[in-house]
Hypoxanthine phosphoribosyltransferase
Amino acid sequence: MRSIQLGDKTFELSITSTEIQKAIYRMADEMDRDLKDKNPLMICILNGSFMFAADVMKKFTTPCQVSFVKLASYQGTQTTGQVKELIGLTEDIVGRTVVLLEDIVDTGVTIDNLVKQLNGMGPREVKVATLLFKPDACKRDVTLDYVGLSIPNEFIVGYGLDYNGYGRNLPDIYSLVK
Ligand code: IMP
Ligand code: MG
């Protein structure tokens, strides 16, 4: 099994880029079916979601707008449990269908807080599309409308996900070797 080193930690290959792309095609199809006539505003949650958002948007054929927000809740391999304020949303979302594009839902704190913040801004609906989901880590009752892959409760890097800022550029996903 291919392994890599990032700083003090070793990671081994867990999800290949082929598996990732297969999950993304399926998600884009499901989203096209649901969102066809809804003029959705797609929001990529930076930093981690940049690769997922780019790939899923290339497969999504529904006319839409794409925007970006930034938040962060992680330090090293541990969630701080606190989500920083939503930065950068300049669009008026009143009456809009908003779709959040997230790399991973872990404890669910980030997405739960963001969905609540956005729901307070008068949208028609807020949907969530996440490439990865850790069901065993999730502590919040969040509705995930589109899920790429459910994964075990392990720390992973690659395909946008980082360890102290490193590993985001890897096309495959690797899990931490303990
Ligand atoms: P949550 O708030 O615990 O659901 O975590 C959300 C954010 O933490 C995600 O959007 C990721 O950016 C980051 N995150 C969660 N799990 C991992 C992981 O295994 N590796 C790297 N980043 C992660
Ligand atoms: Mg993220």
